[in-house]
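Q: How do we represent a protein-ligand complex in a form that can be generated token by token?
A: Start from the inputs.
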Amino acid sequence: MWYRFAHMDRNFVKAGDKVKKGQKIGTVGNGNGQYWAHLHLDVARHPITTEYPVRTKEEVRKNFYDPYSLGIDWQAMTPHLDDVGNLGYDWLQQIQTGGYHPGVDINASTGGNTDFGKPIYSPIDGEVTYEWRGNGKNGGWGNVIVIKKEDGADNCCDEADRLRAENNDLRKTIKDLDGRIRRAKKELG
Ligand SMILES: [Zn+2]
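Then emit the structure tokens for the protein with zinc ion bound:
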């Protein structure tokens, strides 16, 4: 899984860096002045930079995890922030440009941009696979960090996907067996 942090003011890690849970990775910004100070976090199923391939809810589900299902310690990640999903957009919410929001926005503002510079701590062990430092200038993205979560540290969602697939297979098997029983009964009269 690839954890993407956006709208940051400063990055304290760079591509290739190993990151430990609890390590300070950057500070809160606002994405080049377009919004009040907030942190955007989404978690992708594949390597990601700053593209936004989410025109439908199905595309979001296909490409991203539900951040609320990941057991993220929000308070440890952003102890000074509050109101996950309260500012801007929540998970799977339709956004103004017509797509859907693939992550959550976490409020860092009490009414302006006074909360710039407050720290963000990594919620996971992993490695930085992408970073953008543009003094906040990167479209509306601000500075961005992507951290690939260390393999094996948490398999919650892969396991859930596997169980869902297994469940579907079992349903299909039961349906097939039902059909065969019906046909056999018919033949026997
Ligand atoms: Zn956002």
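The chain has two domains: 2-151, 155-189. The first strand starts at residue 2 and ends at 11.
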